[in-house]
């Protein structure tokens, strides 16, 4: 009997792994590159797009599968989002949320003085204001993302589109935004690295890119956010073509989320047999 069980165990493991692969198939990445389980994978979001055509165009024309987040109702957001889409780049909504600083949010901003109806209505209008979006992240929001009730409203309102993901920009360590998204089955991720926390400091951007790669090598994946500053774009234009030689895969954010989910599921399946 023990001999029979020892033969059945490998077969059981194989069946379980095949089932895991099938269950994760809906989450497989859409990138053109083949992603292997041991590949080092990164995503980069360029935020705050839509107000300036020249810098926005330069950002969209960066080489590789970057992801672009557009503020709603800005003069060039629709045009640049269309350009990104024609170049097979992923598009996001960069959703303005109230900050501790009280800085002006611009059109489409969500604030804590809004009631639930106003809040959800404004969010849905913003989602429809930017074409081709696959997900959304917060612009500022250090005040609002600490509030679980209003984060719940955001995720409930976003569920009228069942294909959106959410990225928490993590403008405060006290954020609860991603937790509220996950409670409602919305796929998501959080920002790991800010590339340019000081504007046009090229040395800082290079240091942060090094930190991005170091984190990706340690964790398998990493997600960075940058802005269409001249210094940031200059550094990225030189750095992005080096990724292949470094053995790093750059993918859209939707792919990064899928890769993380698939790998997590596979690790869980393997751990259940140890």
Automatic annotation (TrEMBL):
Coiled-coil zones: none
GO biological process, alphabetically ordered: carbohydrate metabolic process
InterPro entries associated with the record: Divergent_DAC, Glyco_hydro/deAcase_b/a-brl
SUPFAM superfamilies: Glycoside hydrolase/deacetylase (SSF88713)
Record-given protein name: Periplasmic protein YibQ, distant homology with nucleoside diphosphatase and polysaccharide deacetylase
